[in-house]
Amino acid sequence: MALNQVKINHQTKNQTIGADFLLINRSGKIKLFDHLNNTVYTEASIKDWNDNLEKLNRPIFKYFKAPESKLFKNKNGVFIADELVSASVMGVYKAQKQKHIYSKVIQAYTKYLINHRCEPQPEIIQNSYYEIMKYMPENVLSEYKSYEALIIDYSKRCYLVEAHLDFSIDNFLYDDITVEVFLLDNEDLGLLLPGMIDVINLSLNEIYHDRNPFLLNALQNNAFINEIKHIMASNLIHVKENDLKLTIFVNCFMRESSYVSSGLKIAGPSYERIKKRWNSFKMNIRDW
Questions:
Q1: Is 144 a residue whose pLDDT tops 80?
Q2: What span, in angstroms and rounded, lies between the C-alpha atoms of 197 and 236?
Q3: Residue 31, domain extent
Q4: CA distances, 27 to each of 31, 54, 81, 134, 199 (Å)
Q5: Are residues 187 and 233 in the same domain?
Q6: Which of 47-51, 125-129, 261-265 has the lowest mean pLDDT?
């Protein structure tokens, strides 16, 4: 297949698509960006297309918009064709606008959580906590273990929800005119996880990628105090003092667990990665 030009059969028409940008996604699939026709073509199979359709019908997309998606076939294979909407990626905006978008994301996710949460399953959080304990560096192990009782209590109070698992500033688009928020990349959607893991990921991912921590700092500085108050009440049975910090901590070890790694189809826990994540966590979470 030529990388700069793809001929697509759509119904009875033949379109020549001049792709002006190409990348390989985490699954090894080619993505072709055609800005002239406002379309992104992703190499796929019929199963991929059916999975894509099924995920676009999941409840989370009642609360976040998704670009229009179509199936295209040609002699080279099958493609998922997604609309390139005119909205801008969250990451291109300045700090104040990103905080505004984050606020809208939290509010929308709160509605999703209220309407689609599942009862606590303590073993999901507890099993991940104990698994990661085995990988903690010796010099911080006693500190990690000291939170055991808090984690057990938290796990019994925490609702679960089907997580998107890739909330990042690269996967949100914001339309300044319609003020709509678009959510991209549903590949990892569906794993049952603590109800705020996606919302916290949106700020934590920035420090784990060594980018600007201002969203996490804003979260800790109560910039979203009303939004967090509402989502915490929707996420937990009886909110307690310091539950926000505990929620961030749960995110810290859950994301490294085999349970989440299997959902992401990536390698499981790693001593080096966990050490690095813990150091980032300690450096950026205040009064921990």
A1: yes
A2: 13
A3: 6-83
A4: 11, 19, 17, 29, 24
A5: yes
A6: 261-265
- Indicate whether 96 and 164 sit together in one domain: yes
Instruction: Verify that 45 and 182 share a domain, yes or no.
Output: no
Query: Do 20 and 127 fall into the same domain?
Result: no
Alpha-carbon distance of 174 to 190, in angstroms, equals 23
CB of 82 closer than 8 Å to CB of 42: yes
Quick check: 9 and 24 in contact, CB under 8 A? no
Residue-averaged pLDDT of the chain: 89
Place of tokens 């966590």: 281
Q: Is the pLDDT of residue 263 over 80?
A: no
Question: Is residue 64 a contact partner of residue 198, using CB atoms and an 8 Å limit?
Answer: no
Q: Percent of the chain, pLDDT > 70?
A: 90
* Concatenated DSSP letters of 122-154: HHHHHHHHHHHHTTS-HHHHHHHHTTHHHHHHH
Look at residue 2 in the predicted model and tell me its pLDDT: 35
Residue 6 pLDDT greater than 80, yes or no: no
Site of tokens 């996606």:
198
Q: In what order do the strands lie in the sheet with 39-44?
A: 13-17, 6-10, 69-74, 77-83, 39-44, 30-34, 21-24
Give the residue from 28, 72, 75 showing the smallest Cα distance to 52.
72
Would you say 191 and 165 are in contact if contact means Cβ atoms under 8 Å apart? yes
Which of these, 238, 217, 275, 276, lies nearest to 98 by C-alpha position? 217
Instruction: Tell me which DSSP letter residue 15 carries.
Output: E
Residue 38, classed as helix, strand or coil, is coil
Q: How far apart are alpha carbons 220 and 222 in whole angstroms?
A: 5
Structural contact between residues 152 and 194, judged by C-beta atoms closer than 8 angstroms: no
Which two tokens mark 268? 């499981």
